[in-house]
Design goal:
The chain is an alpha/beta fold and about 220 residues long. About 45% of the residues lie in helices and about 15% in strands.
């Protein structure tokens, strides 16, 4: 009798372990394959404002280059870029010369608002000297004075970025003319519960320009 109970207990333990492994595997699969786009209205709002800032800077007949990344690792960027392109069509007149999709590989620095290096930006600027603006959804590069000196002329830069305080020289040289950054000034304007696209943007983001006082490191989330 004791042996039978012992065997039954061992079977229950093994079965429980197997079920635990299966449950964990299912949870990991669902977690890793689930889309992180939890708030499409917010990401659409970012795209809309990026388009509006671009149009403000280049006019309605400007030529631009879009810089983004492989969206399999950042599907929210797909929402942002699609909203950007749709808003450009509503504005009218602006033409997209090229859309450059960077492959981040295993580089963890790449994400919405970050990843564009000085070396890559210099190459893009040289190859697209005839464009009126470069619109980067993967940040603005941190550049030394020596690297900036290599830019005889460059298209205007509009960028979604997370580190504006590191980009003072880009603002001073009037290369970066509009930066979309996470909101650091509170309270945010508008209602506590956003309804419109612009309200969503203003609730979580704000715009910096060359004449905007730069936030300190402690200000930026």
């Amino acid at each position: 009798m004791l042996a039978l109970r012992s065997n039954a207990m061992r079977k229950l333990i093994v079965l429980g372990a197997v079920l635990g492994i299966v449950t964990s595997a299912v949870w990991i699969y669902r977690f890793q394959t689930a889309s992180p786009v939890m708030n499409p209205e917010l990401h659409q709002a970012v795209g809309h404002v990026m388009a509006e800032e671009t149009a403000r800077l280049v006019g309605h007949l400007g030529k631009i280059v879009i810089v983004t990344m492989d969206t399999r690792r950042a599907p929210e960027l797909k929402v942002q870029v699609q909203a950007f392109e749709q808003q450009l069509k509503l504005i009218g007149g602006i033409s997209v010369n090229a859309t450059l999709t960077l492959d981040p590989g295993d580089n963890p620095k790449f994400r919405p608002g970050a990843g564009l290096s000085a070396k890559r930006f210099l190459k893009i600027a040289r190859q697209n000297a005839g464009a009126d603006a470069i619109v980067s959804f993967v940040g603005a590069p941190q550049m030394s004075d020596e690297e900036l000196a290599q830019l005889k002329s460059a298209p205007k830069l509009v960028a979604e970025t997370h580190s504006p305080q590191r980009l003072v020289n880009l603002f001073q040289k009037k290369i970066l003319l509009s930066a979309i950054v996470p909101r650091y000034e509170f309270p945010a304007p508008g209602p506590r519960k956003p309804q419109t696209s612009r309200q969503w943007f203003d609730h979580y983001f704000q715009i910096l320009a060359p004449d905007t006082p730069m936030p300190s490191q402690d200000d930026v989330p």
